[in-house]
Amino acid sequence: MSPEQGNTDEDGFKEARYESRHVHQVYDKIATHFSATRYKPWPIVEKFLNSLPLGAVGLDMGCGNGKYLNINPNIFILGSDRCGRLVEIAQQHAASQDVVNADIMDPPYRPSTFDFALSIAVIHHLSTARRRIEAIASILGLLKPGGEGKALVKQPTTSLSCGSIISIKRGNWKVMLSRQGERSSLLDMRKITGGQFLTELENWRKFNISPCEGLST
Question: Which CATH entry fits the domain spanning 3-215: 3.40.50.150, 3.40.50.1110, 3.40.1130.10, 3.40.710.10?
Answer without folding.
Answer: 3.40.50.150
